[in-house]
Specification:
binds NADP nicotinamide-adenine-dinucleotide phosphate, single chain, six-stranded mixed β-sheet, 12 helices
């Protein structure tokens, strides 16, 4: 420790939309830590040299977001078991020579959000329907499998991508046709949207939750709006819902602890601060 403010940040392209600076800025103020957390925009052709420069300049670490989660992993000096299994990283911690360790905390963020919102929620020996097969779906599938889920029904507009995930993760993942998602809702414990459908400016998912059982939990990784059309439909059927903001908040905690030395709390005040309320 040399008494200088601790530096960390988030790297993406573009990066202006990221809420991570609000999140980490709130925690820095709350815990009275001398530090900064800055958004850094790097074009893809400058990512490798840019990351090294941040590390050499004294940054403790960075989060990486779209479109760098895979590229950041492939240039890491060391990789956590989770990031290696998922093939993507979102949390990098630097050595002084600019090399870095890569981890992925998205699955941790997903599970922590579910448990904090619905303490009785469990997936062990259960079933889930996952909509989408992109990077976020990969993290959620990995997390559910590690929790001992019995079956994941996976549906994606582009079926091939769902099949690739099944090939990667194994037979507990069963690919469902995108046109059959309303039927696939029947007797699953949890329905999870990992597509960008339902986000402000995007169409809603065309799905009916009519056949869902009364206890089926519905969650959406999209958090703009907080109550997406999918969650609104679930509420209209009296189903328990979990919004996606908490996943963003929880996935930031391990990086904050690594870089600033304090495990941060995820609570209602933080949610309000990140929502700008
Ligand atoms: P991604 O890798 O680009 O995947 C996007 C997914 O959305 C794919 O499955 C894609 O299907 C599907 N999709 C896009 N447009 C569609 C449409 N018109 N109809 C049907 N499916 C469509 O993105 P990602 O990183 O997985 O992120 C997905 C979403 O999760 C984003 O909204 C992101 O903001 C959110 N997210 C939230 C958190 C959080 O902390 N809450 C964390 C990570 C991600 P195809 O394969 O057919 O294109």
């Amino acid at each position: 420790m040399n008494g200088e403010p601790i530096l960390a940040g988030v790297v993406g392209y573009p990066i202006g939309h990221s809420r991570s600076p609000l999140l980490h800025g709130y925690w820095l103020r709350k815990y009275g830590i001398s530090g900064h957390y800055v958004p850094v925009s790097l074009s893809p052709d400058r990512l490798v040299e840019g990351l090294r420069a941040l590390g050499v300049a004294g940054f403790r670490g960075v989060n990486v977001t779209i479109p760098f989660k895979e590229l950041a992993l492939s240039n890491a000096a060391t990789v956590s078991e989770t990031a290696g299994m998922l093939g993507a990283a979102n949390t990098l911690t630097f050595e002084s020579d600019g090399s870095y360790h890569a981890d992925n905390t998205d699955g941790y963020g997903f599970l922590s959000n579910m448990r904090q919102t619905l303490p009785d929620w469990t997936v062990a020996r259960g079933t889930a329907l996952i909509l989408g097969a992109g990077g976020a779906a990969r993290a959620v599938v990995g997390a559910l499998l590690s929790e001992g889920i019995a079956e994941i029904r996976l549906a994606n507009r582009t079926r091939r991508r769902a099949e690739e995930l099944r090939d990667h993760f194994g037979t507990r993942v069963r690919v469902i046709d995108w046109r059959e998602i309303s039927e696939a809702v029947c007797d699953v414990d949890t329905v999870i949207n990992t597509t960008s459908l339902g986000m402000i400016g995007n169409a809603a998912i065309e799905i009916s939750l009519e056949d869902a059982e009364s206890g089926t939990v519905v969650t959406d990784l999209v958090y703009q709006p907080l109550i997406t059309p999918l969650l609104a439909q679930a509420q209209s059927h009296g189903l328990p819902v979990v919004d996606g903001l908490g996943m963003l908040l929880h996935q930031g905690a391990p990086g904050f602890e690594r870089w600033y030395g304090h495990w941060p709390e995820v609570d209602a005040d933080l949610r309000r601060a990140v929502l700008g309320r």
